[in-house]
Write a structure and sequence with these properties.
Layout lengths: L17 H6 L12 E4 L16 E6 L9 H8 L4 E5 L8 H13 L4 E7 H14 L8 H4 L10 E7 L9 E6 L4 E6 L7 E4 L9 H19 L7 H23 L4 H13 L14 H13 L3 H15 L1 H16 L6 H18 L16 H11 L13 H10 L2
Parallel strand pairs: 1-8, 2-3, 2-4, 4-5, 5-8
Antiparallel strand pairs: 6-7
């Protein structure tokens, strides 16, 4: 029996059980994050110092926005002494077939360093390429379907242009494959960037829709690591709550004035801190919202962040009994909700969260994005069950039936 992930109980005499005592003790953990962060205006110029002189660099980017906002010119100037091969066109959900073309370039051109210039999708693509370049199997997709942990990858760095996913300071990646309708994760200690440049001036050129997505993505990342049950990890809770509070305060200012350097700096650093490994250590995590959200993206092409905003309120409402203590704590510390009992405050916290997404002009119902949603719940549930994901969440209580009900409630 997994004591840590079980629901606490009280003995008949009213004393806490051994199980409950175990639950209020912070979990053991190891924390290693070797990523060097270069934060601030003008830091792109320093990348030449962090790439080996003799490296042949694959410059990986998206659909070309970096050529309009000046970032491309800064990167090329910084790499003027390096041999560069460019590969553009990485889509918003990094697509396996396109990445395989990039992998051919890596092998044919004898590339030995990758520089990802873009948002989370480009960086996730670079992580796949880093792993696949040294993969000894026949089919690189096996890295994802078989959960192969990458212990060593081709070295790579990043220049972040769209804050959201935190991929610039972690070792995880999510890749899509259109032909199979899959969106799967991968990771391992070999997939940390060697360095990441975070220049807040890039935020000024990001469209409002993407800014809203970035805020929502980061906010939900924090909730997935925080919104479980109390375990006595006060500092971790305070870290998480401070990131959410900062995002709430920053959001309207950012939408109104993304060129403000201070506002952009706070936004960018919040997104990185939301998923660099720090706040998840020593505490239970959920991540069921992401599992369901990824399927909505695969089925309907809904932006990743927006799928999280769709699922999160229904997920928390469905598991209110399991999560009400943390929901109430979050409501009090982040939203200043002090009236009512625990359950009432928890429900108010869910309402406040959904209202926050609405304030960013993000609809929180599947029907706002597609008319073809009739069988979506069944498809999401079946897809997760086919992978053996039948007991998700901090209590392993997110079953296929629960998934179906949560998604149906999100129509």
């Amino acid at each position: 029996m997994d004591l840590i992930n079980s629901i606490p109980t009280i003995e008949p005499n009213g004393e806490p059980s051994v199980l409950q005592i175990i639950q209020i003790i912070m979990l053991n953990f190891e924390l290693v994050n070797p990523v060097k962060i270069l934060f601030g205006k003008g830091e792109i110029a320093k990348i030449k110092k962090h790439i080996p002189n003799q490296a042949k660099v694959l410059l990986l980017y998206g659909k070309g926005s970096i050529k309009k906002n000046g970032i491309y010119d800064q990167v090329v100037s910084a790499l003027s002494d390096h041999a560069i091969v460019e590969f553009g066109g990485i889509p918003a959900n990094p697509e396996y077939s396109i990445l395989m073309k990039a992998l051919s370039v890596i092998k044919n051109e004898e590339i030995n360093f990758i520089l990802a210039v873009g948002g989370g999708s480009v960086i996730d693509g670079a992580k796949f390429l880093s792993s696949a370049a040294l993969f000894e199997g026949e089919e690189p997709w096996d890295i994802l379907t078989k959960g192969i942990r990458t212990e060593k990858g081709m070295p790579f760095g990043t220049v972040l242009t769209l804050p959201a996913t935190g991929s610039e300071m972690n070792s995880g990646s999510v890749i899509s494959r259109k032909e199979t309708g899959q969106k799967l994760g991968m990771g391992g200690p070999g997939l940390f960037p060697k360095f990441s440049v975070l220049d807040p001036t890039v935020v000024a050129s990001i469209p409002n829709r993407q800014l809203a997505n970035g805020i929502t993505d980061a906010f939900t990342h924090v909730m997935e690591q925080y919104m479980t049950y109390p375990i006595g990890a006060d500092l971790q809770d305070r870290f998480a709550e401070s990131i959410m509070s900062s995002l709430i305060d920053t959001a309207p200012k950012l939408i109104d004035n993304p060129s403000d350097y201070t506002i952009a700096s706070n936004f960018m650093w919040c997104c990185t801190m939301a998923l660099n490994g720090l706040i998840q250590k020593g505490v239970p995590n959920d991540w069921a919202i992401h599992a369901m959200g990824h399927e909505l993206t695969a089925l309907h092409g809904i932006d990743h962040a927006r799928t999280l905003a769709i699922i999160a309120p229904r997920h928390y409402a469905y598991f209110l009994e399991n999560k009400k203590e943390k929901l109430a704590q979050y409501g009090e510390r982040v939203w200043n909700i002090t009236e009512g009992n625990i359950e009432e405050r928890a429900k108010q916290a869910i309402e406040k969260t959904e209202s926050f997404f609405h304030s960013l002009d993000i609809p929180t119902r599947i029907s706002a994005y597609t008319n073809d949603f009739k069988n979506t719940a069944e498809k999401v549930s079946t897809a997760l069950e086919s992978r053996g994901w039948v007991a998700l969440g901090e209590h392993k209580a997110v079953t296929p039936d629960a998934v179906k009900e949560i998604v149906e409630a999100s129509y």
